[in-house]
Write a structure and sequence with these properties.
The chain is mainly alpha-helical. The protein has one domain. Strands 1-2 form a two-stranded antiparallel sheet. A hairpin with a 7-residue loop joins β1 and β2.
Length: 108
C-alpha cells in the first residue's frame, strides 16, 4: 500500500516536471522567434522586463538554440530566413507555428 502511494506521488511529480519543462521550452522557442523576427527585419526586441526598452536581437540566445539543433554558424542566416518564411506560409494558410508537432509530446 505504501509502495503504491509512493509510486503515485512520484508519477505526479514527474508529470509536473515534464509539464514545467515543456512550458519552459515553449517560452524559449517563442523568445527565439521574436529575436529571429527582429534580426531578419533589422529591428530591435522589446525587453521582457522593461517593456519600454528595446534591444538588439539576442545573438547568444539564437545561437544557443541553433547549436542544439546542429545549425552551423555559416548557415544561421539562411536558417533564420527559412524559419520566418515557414511561419509566414503557415499564417497564409490560416495555421499557427507549433515548434513540436508530435502529438505524443503535446501537453494534454
Amino acid at each position: 500500500m505504501v509502495k503504491d502511494e509512493y509510486t503515485d506521488i512520484v508519477k505526479g511529480e514527474v508529470q509536473r516536471a515534464i509539464s514545467a519543462d515543456e512550458e519552459g521550452n515553449q517560452g524559449a522557442v517563442l523568445n527565439y522567434i521574436d529575436n529571429v523576427r527582429a534580426y531578419i527585419r533589422k529591428e530591435k526586441v522589446k525587453n521582457k522586463v522593461y517593456q519600454a526598452k528595446h534591444e538588439p536581437p539576442n545573438e547568444k540566445l539564437m545561437r544557443s538554440i541553433e547549436e542544439k539543433i546542429d545549425i552551423p554558424e555559416s548557415r544561421k542566416d539562411d536558417f533564420r530566413r527559412e524559419i520566418m518564411n515557414y511561419i509566414g506560409a503557415l499564417a497564409l494558410d490560416g495555421k499557427t507555428f507549433d515548434y513540436n508537432p508530435t502529438p505524443a509530446y503535446r501537453r494534454r
